[in-house]
Amino acid sequence: xxxxxxxxxPAGSGSSRGFRFAxxxxxxxxxxxxxxxxxGLVLFLALRGNDGSLLGVxxxxxxxxxxxxxxxxxxxxxxxxxxxxxxTLATVVTAYPVAYYLAFHAGRRRGLLLFLVTLPFWTxxxxxxxxxxxxxxxxxxxxxxLIESGIWSEPTLAFLNTPAAVVVTLAHAYAPFAxxxxxxxxxxxxxxxxxxxxxxxxxxxxAFRRVVLPNSMPGVLAAALVVFVPxxxxxxxxxxxxxxxxxxxGTLIQSQFGKANDWPFGAALSVCVMLVILWVVLVARGAxxxxxxxx
Length: 295
Fold this sequence. Notes:
Belongs to the binding-protein-dependent transport system permease family. CysTW subfamily. The protein is mostly helical. The protein is 76% helix and 2% strand. It has 13 helices and 2 strands, in the order αββαααααααααααα. A two-stranded antiparallel sheet has the order 1-2. The longest helix has 45 residues. It is globular. The termini are far apart. The relative contact order is 0.12.
């Protein structure tokens, strides 16, 4: 009997390893080809010279030197970080009350409200941006409402083609991405902690400040990263609702891969932006660890 078990064990362990390999293979291939290979190709292009071909010619650091020495790219990068920061701040501040209500006060309506939160995912991102363009246009919904209410006598160009229009549009587009991680963090807070705080005489605001907010900070930081990272490189929204003062780094990168036909320089810009975003992610990770150690 023991010999039979011993003979069957290697076969079982071998089939288990084969099963694990088969399960990991699709994810591994996707990780390699869509992430690692793509990043490697971008870095390879960034070190090439532009001769109009797809992969460039020779190896040079001139693309990075141009990016670091030209004030234009520093200005646009700083503007992109500021706009992305404002979008992140506006999104998180408006998403937190919604997530708080879903976690603690929604009751039986929670499922319906979560469905409504995810409903924008059913529509195209371009359609949502174009809808805001209609709202903010010279003869759009907002100007018409202000004129009909008697606040203004004629339409204004103060809404469209401004950095504020980009911030509002992006904040609306990425609101669900902020609500969901904050909601998950709030929903995992044990209700016994709030009951204990109440039994000890803590007022609702004190319980929120000392119990709810610190324990929900990992979700807040996750929401901030989920919003900040894609908005830094966004180029569709600035092109549709922003003006020249709203040009972001993603617009310059897109133009290098498009009209300028300078893929190596566009790749160098992309690498620099990725390094900036990586630094932001590392700072956020450090802040998450600090909040985790405190709680």
